[in-house]
Design a protein that fits this description.
Length: 149
């Protein structure tokens, strides 16, 4: 694997901020109160985890679609077809109540990591892709899991 480009690493880590904030407001009651009063419920706890988690899962479909443009031969159709799975998962599976949605997102991010590995193995994703996606996915799953405590 090659080194993760600095911009991708910094932006990937910055993308964790809403997940970390949501988990922190779930785990720290005083921070939850502050967030509710200052930002409102949409940007607090399980709600921000659900909203942002759904948006990013759908966004990642676009990333995979971009990788699919590199496909050739027999991989073209599967690469494009699989790229829309995370967005469809978010659309159909998220929305069954706060806790059910969190569970759907955890499974969705797990499935996304499998797709990341497939695109990486097919050399559609950059060689550094899994080095970035593995820790990001682990942190996202941990943050989402905090909402279920």
């Amino acid at each position: 694997m090659t080194a993760i480009p600095r911009a991708a690493l910094i932006l990937g880590l910055a993308g964790l901020i809403p997940f970390l904030w949501g988990a922190a407001t779930v785990l720290i009651p005083s921070l939850d109160s502050f967030s509710q009063d200052s930002l409102g419920p949409r940007f607090t706890g399980i709600y921000v985890l659900n909203f942002y988690g759904t948006i990013i899962l759908a966004f990642m479909s676009g990333v995979l679609w971009g990788f699919a443009t590199r496909a050739q031969g027999w991989t073209i159709w599967p690469a494009y077809a699989l790229s829309v799975v995370p967005a469809l998962w978010a659309f159909f599976m998220v929305g069954g109540g706060p806790e059910g949605s969190i569970m759907a997102l955890i499974w969705g991010y797990g499935g996304l990591l499998v797709l990341d590995a497939i695109y990486w193995a097919l050399r559609l994703a950059p060689r550094w892709w899994l080095a970035l996606r593995l820790p990001l996915t682990a942190i996202v799953a941990a943050c989402l899991s905090a909402a279920l405590l």
